[in-house]
Amino acid sequence: MINGSHTAMGEILGAKAKPIIGIPVYDEHTNQIKWAEERKLGILAISTKQTVSAVSEIRNNYNKYQENVIEFAKNYDRSGTRKTAKIISEMLED
Q1: Which one, 27, 51, 82, 85, has the greatest CB density within 10 A?
Q2: CA-based radius of gyration for the chain
Q3: Could you give the 3-state DSSP secondary structure of residue 78?
Q4: CA 42 – CA 38 distance, rounded (Å)
Q5: Distance (Å, rounded) from C-alpha 89 to C-alpha 16?
Q6: CA-CA distance, 71 to 86, in Å (whole number)?
């Protein structure tokens, strides 16, 4: 379970290759979790009932979620933050 921030989602979906249950804290988290839900990478949960349902859904269909997450993780750039910092640093130096 995560809050739906892009950093947390990147770490769990991309680096760890695990499906998520997202409980949003901020509005943008909801959109990001919905994006993952549309791709069968995880599920949005706002209430306790939805969270319990999401756990059950992922458990019952874990192989399908895992298959989608593994495919997503193949394209995930684990060094994206480092590359971004390098580009910004070079821009500031110039």
Answers
A1: 51
A2: 15
A3: coil
A4: 8
A5: 28
A6: 27
Instruction: For tokens 């791709």, name the residue.
Output: 39
Tokens of 19: 């499906």
Q: Are 61 and 39 in contact (CB under 8 A)?
A: no
Whole-angstrom distance, CA of residue 27 vs CA of residue 25 = 7
Gap between the Cα atoms of 16 and 22, Å rounded: 15
pTM: predicted TM-score of the whole model, two decimal places = 0.79
Residue 15 one-letter amino acid:
A
Instruction: Give dist(CA 39, CA 70) in Å, integer.
Output: 12
Q: In the chain, which stretches have pLDDT less than 50?
A: none
Q: What confidence score (pLDDT) does residue 76 get? A: 82
